[in-house]
Design a protein that fits this description.
The structure holds two protein chains of two kinds.
Chain A lengths: L2 E10 L4 E10 L4 E5 L6 H9 L4 E10 L2 E2 L5 H7 L1 E4 L6 E5 H11 L9 H14 L10 E2 L5 H15 L3 E5 L7 H14 L5 E5 L3 H6 L4 E6 L2 E6 L2 H9 L2 H7 L1
Parallel strand pairs in A: 3-10, 3-11, 6-9, 9-10
Antiparallel strand pairs in A: 1-2, 1-4, 4-5, 7-8, 11-12
Helix pairs in contact in A: 5-6
Chain B lengths: L24 E2 L6 H11 L3 H16 L23 E2 L13 H9 L2 H8 L2 E6 L2 E7 L1 H5 L3 E3 L1 H6 L2 H4 L13 H9 L5 E4 L9 E6 L6 E2 L2 E6 L4 E9 L7 E3 L2 E6 L4 E8 L5 E11 L4 E8 L4 E4 L2 E4 L5 E10 L4 E10 L5 E10 L4 E10 L7 E10 L5 E10 L5 E10 L2 H9 L4 H17 L4 H19 L1
Parallel strand pairs in B: 3-7, 6-9, 7-10, 8-11, 9-12, 10-13, 11-14, 12-14, 13-15, 14-16, 14-17, 15-18, 16-19, 17-19, 18-20, 19-21, 20-22, 21-23, 22-24
Antiparallel strand pairs in B: 1-2, 3-4, 5-6
Classes of the chains: A alpha/beta, B alpha/beta.
């Protein structure tokens, strides 16, 4: 699915503006990376696209394959194919991973249809194995007592199970060691397809060595300041984000 | 929601339906000496019981409503607008085929005969004031297990039941125990002989069909030395505009080494006042567990208690309550440590939805001379909306030496971040709430027998859909 964002402005409820005119065109089949200094609004962009209640969109538009995202409820956006791998995955006490994913899959099915429980568990086990996850995690409460790395891996598990059409990965690499990073990246790469798009938010070049982006955007002060090819990643790795400050001056 | 699959077919778990009244006996509105004479005549009770009931009536009249501490909503309960005895005038049947058609259809719709076939050792099905069906598997009668109604219990098995009748909960304990002693009808008297262990539960189903009725269930369970049983009760009623009253007295006696587990799933309509007194006496090495779930009723006041009377006796209360708009769930637990080395455990979780109000009221008392006792209490409240309310009233007094009492309490709200996270995965807000609530009580729901936990989860899902969806 394509994601087209035009002049998107969003504020906190107290009026403080975080997104100040984001423009982005992510065609179906592509992977775009967003890099940028801390506090530039990268995570806010991902939350606003998913309909987080803390933010108010004051101007602009966001469309998923031509559908107006901003008029949809957060759950309708999810069912339409939008997925966010959270930077800080939330704990859901008492609800097992298996039951949670089953409920999410069921929510996508037309009314009255039932999920094939046997096929579901079989697939869940296979995907967990691919991610090198202990299958015991399926009967543990969602993210409860998980380490930082386990939580991130669990996000990727959910993504592989729910098979979204447009996936946003918000700093999924932070907290992962090299081996985990490789496994997680393999998972993402296995999903790359002409009908699917990815928006990868990261601080580090490392992840983009594994998940190779088509386009790289530099985010600063609530908007995309610069876009380019893979070479931008190397430039930032070498020079940091200081050039943005120079441009400000 | 559960990995377990239901073993009984879906039933009408809410029970909001009724049949036209067909009563041979109707004591009319209000409670007087005449009402008591009417009940005693209808039931053919001995004189001592008639006098006993009248003494109780006298106490009931003299005692005030406990408004200095109880939920103020009970002030609106008008005892003169309640009908105290409604019965079809037919003795309890041992076969569903002999039960009057409307009554049989009621219980079929509630799934009772199916559950009986699937996993129960015996069933008492009460319809308004009297038991319509009561049967127990034959092998249990052969082992000497007694499962009868109070009238039979006090006449045919007087020597077994009368010594304990009213001993755990005295007549004058409070206004509602007095009321029950005056008007009681229906319920179960159970005796399990020494060393007999029931592999399957006995079940009582309390059904209110008629408007303005007062149902005064009376249950006395005696587990002799080393005996074990599980008893389950379920309740439903159609919703009427006028108030109905269910005011039961349940006494448990666990003799040395015995184990009694008592499970309640209360799902009354919201016009029902559910004011119930449940108390157990645990002798040496005995164990009593109350597993209590309150979903329905307008006002519930219920604090299952265990008096730990013998050395090393154990008591436990596991309690779930859900209060929606207009509901007051005033629940809790009492543990009285009257002997050394007794232990008790209380886990209570409540959920308040909309303007619903759930309170935890608990008492843990370690009496002088009861050394080396332990109690652990945990009560957690979940508030779904800004206007939802919860209150906690714990009372702890320790007089025994080297005893330890722990109390943990928490109040939380369904976290918006958690809801957003679940919604992002495609769940509607109602589905997300329902999952969060199920998660909150998951560990306690697992304490219920499987057949009940499946029903419980389904009920919770329905409540969530209605409240939020």
């Amino acid at each position: 699915m394509s994601l087209v964002i035009k002049n998107l402005h969003a504020s906190l409820k107290d009026g403080h503006e975080i997104l100040s005119g984001v423009n982005l065109e992510l065609p179906s089949g592509q992977v775009h990376a967003i890099m940028g200094p801390n506090g530039s609004g990268k995570s806010t962009l991902s939350k606003v696209l998913c309909g987080h209640p803390d933010y108010i969109v004051t101007a602009g538009s966001a469309e998923l394959d031509g559908q107006d995202l901003l008029s949809m409820t957060p759950d309708a956006r999810g069912r339409a194919g939008l997925f966010l791998a959270f930077q800080y995955p939330v704990e859901v006490p008492g609800v097992t991973n298996a039951n949670f994913l089953r409920a999410a899959l069921k929510a996508r099915m037309p009314g009255g249809e039932e999920l094939d429980a046997v096929a579901y568990y079989k697939r869940l086990r296979t995907v967990m194995k691919d991610l090198n996850m202990d299958t015991k995690f399926s009967s543990r409460a969602v993210n409860e007592g998980f380490s930082g790395g386990e939580k991130k891996r669990n996000e990727v598990l959910q993504m592989l199970m729910l098979e979204p059409l447009c996936a946003i990965l918000d700093e999924t690499d932070s907290g992962l060691d090299v081996d985990a990073l490789r496994i997680v990246s393999q998972g993402v790469n296995s999903m790359r397809a002409p009908f699917r798009s990815f928006l990868v938010i990261t601080h580090y070049k490392r992840l983009l060595d594994y998940i190779v982006p088509d386009v790289v955007h530099i985010f600063h002060r609530g908007r995309i300041e610069r876009s380019g090819g893979r070479e931008l990643v190397g430039y930032i790795e070498e020079h940091g984000f200081d050039f943005l400050k120079e441009e400000d001056a | 929601m559960s990995d377990k699959l239901p073993t009984v077919p879906p039933q009408d778990v809410r029970g909001d339906f009724s049949f036209p009244e067909q009563h041979a006996y109707d004591a009319g509105y209000g409670l007087t000496e005449n009402t008591i004479d009417y009940i005693c005549d209808a039931k053919g009770e001995p004189d001592w019981l008639r006098n006993f009931r009248k003494t109780a009536l006298d106490k009931f009249r003299k005692m005030p409503q406990p408004l200095h501490w109880a939920p103020q909503e009970i002030a609106a309960l008008d005892f003169d607008k309640i009908r105290y005895y409604l019965a079809q005038g037919i003795p309890a049947r041992k076969s569903w085929d002999d039960v009057p058609d409307d009554v049989k259809r009621t219980f079929e719709r509630l799934g009772v005969p199916e559950q009986e076939r699937a996993f129960l050792a015996g069933v008492d099905a009460q319809y308004d004031s009297e038991t319509a069906y009561k049967n127990m598997r034959e092998e249990l009668s052969k082992k000497g297990v007694i499962f009868v109604n109070p009238t039979e219990g006090l006449s045919e098995f007087e020597s077994v039941f009368r010594p304990w009748f009213g001993k755990v909960i005295p007549m004058g304990d409070n206004k509602y125990s007095a009321l029950n002693n005056a008007a009681f009808s229906g319920g179960s008297f159970i005796y399990v002989p020494k060393g007999v262990k029931l592999a399957q539960p006995l079940q009582a189903y309390f059904r209110i069909n008629s408007e303005s009725i007062g149902q005064f269930e009376r249950t006395l369970i005696i587990a002799d030395e080393g005996a074990e049983l599980m008893y389950m009760e379920g309740c439903t009623a159609p919703k009427y505009d006028s108030a109905t009253l269910h005011s039961g007295v349940v006494e448990l006696v666990a003799l040395p080494g015995a184990k009694i587990q008592y499970v309640t799933v209360q799902n009354w309509a919201t016009n029902v006042y559910n004011l119930v007194i449940q108390r157990g006496l645990a002798m040496q090495n005995a164990e009593i567990r109350w597993i209590d779930c309150n979903i329905g009723s307008g006002v519930t006041m219920k604090y299952p208690a265990v008096i730990l009377q013998g050395r090393k006796a154990r008591g436990e209360v596991v309690s779930i309550s859900i209060a929606r708009d207009g509901q007051v769930q005033d629940t809790g637990a009492r543990m009285i440590h009257a002997a050394p080395e007794t232990t008790s455990n209380i886990v209570a979780k409540s959920i308040s939805i909309g303007r619903g109000r759930a309170s935890y009221r608990g008492e843990v008392r370690v009496q002088p001379g009861a050394a080396g006792c332990r109690n652990h209490t945990e009560c957690d409240a979940l508030l779904l909306h800004a206007e939802s309310r919860t209150d906690t009233y714990p009372a702890i007094s320790v007089h025994g030496d080297s005893s330890g009492v722990q109390h943990e309490a928490s109040v939380s709200q369904v976290d918006e971040e958690m809801l957003f996270y679940m919604q992002q995965r495609g769940l509607t807000r109602a589905q997300a709430m329902s999952l969060a609530v199920n998660g909150f009580i998951n560990s306690l729901v697992n304490e219920f027998p499987m057949e009940y936990s499946v029903e419980l989860r389904r009920l919770i899902d329905m409540e969530m859909e209605d409240s939020i969806g």
